[in-house]
């Protein structure tokens, strides 16, 4: 039968090691098309062999695909592109200029144009005055960056009622330090937003899917430290 098979579809290819796919290709001399359908997260990484000691032939077949190969005719990445179409376009132009990447399952449409200078590139940066504080015993926090983050969240909730637009965890706040995370969690609880907004440190974010991410860097060394009341009185912009 191997001499008559020209097309093969492998379902759940995310569970297949590279060497098995290679055997299929070698043993099918008239193979014209090989279709791999699967999720790379399905691969069973056994702990009996250390990752750095495992031969490449036992790695996941989906990881071994050369995305720049001329023999590769079609790519459809589903869950990878649960993101804003603008970000997909940037990735397409920079990393895969000869491919056509399409966000098959974009997030729910949110009209955030007035929050971004360029709505096609959904990234905004906010300059903050004021330096960090040490948070005992070894952490840090920044009241001013926390204040800006809360104001951004307030603006989002004023424009989009939670019951209609925001599910739990749709907004994610990332912090570099546990002291900053604790400060943000307390502020969100005081405002009543803790049900809808997740707050995590960057080293604990695994498998999160959020449409809006606010990243608080905390590392600021401005010598001029203004209080929150002074910022409000001076009409500082967010």
TrEMBL record:
SUPFAM superfamilies: P-loop containing nucleoside triphosphate hydrolases (SSF52540). It comes from the Eukaryota. Pfam families: AAA_12. GO terms for biological process: regulatory ncRNA-mediated heterochromatin formation. Gene3D superfamilies: P-loop containing nucleotide triphosphate hydrolases. PANTHER family: DNA2/NAM7 HELICASE FAMILY, NFX1-TYPE ZINC FINGER-CONTAINING PROTEIN 1. This is DNA2/NAM7 helicase-like C-terminal domain-containing protein.
């Amino acid at each position: 039968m191997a001499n008559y098979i020209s097309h093969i579809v492998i379902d759940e290819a995310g569970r297949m090691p590279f060497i098995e796919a290679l055997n299929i290709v070698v043993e099918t001399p008239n193979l014209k098309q090989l279709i791999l359908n699967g999720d790379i997260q399905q691969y069973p990484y056994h702990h009996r062999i250390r990752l750095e000691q495992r031969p490449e032939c036992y790695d996941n077949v989906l990881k071994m695909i050369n995305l720049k190969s001329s023999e590769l005719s079609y790519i459809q990445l589903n869950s990878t592109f649960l993101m804003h179409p603008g970000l997909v376009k940037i990735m397409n132009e920079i990393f895969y200029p000869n491919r056509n990447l399409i966000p098959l399952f974009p997030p729910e449409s949110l009209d955030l144009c007035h929050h971004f200078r360029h709505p096609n590139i959904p990234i905004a940066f906010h300059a903050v005055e004021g330096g960090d504080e040490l948070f005992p015993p070894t952490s840090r926090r920044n009241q001013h960056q926390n204040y800006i983050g809360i104001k951004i969240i307030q603006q989002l909730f004023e424009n989009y009622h939670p019951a209609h637009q925001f599910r739990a965890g749709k907004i994610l706040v990332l912090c570099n330090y546990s002291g900053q995370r604790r400060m943000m969690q307390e502020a969100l609880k005081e405002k009543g937003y803790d049900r809808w907004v997740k707050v995590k440190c960057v080293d604990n974010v695994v498998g999160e899917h959020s449409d809006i991410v606010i990243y608080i860097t905390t590392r600021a060394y401005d010598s001029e430290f203004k209080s929150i009341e002074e910022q409000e009185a001076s009409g500082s912009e967010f």
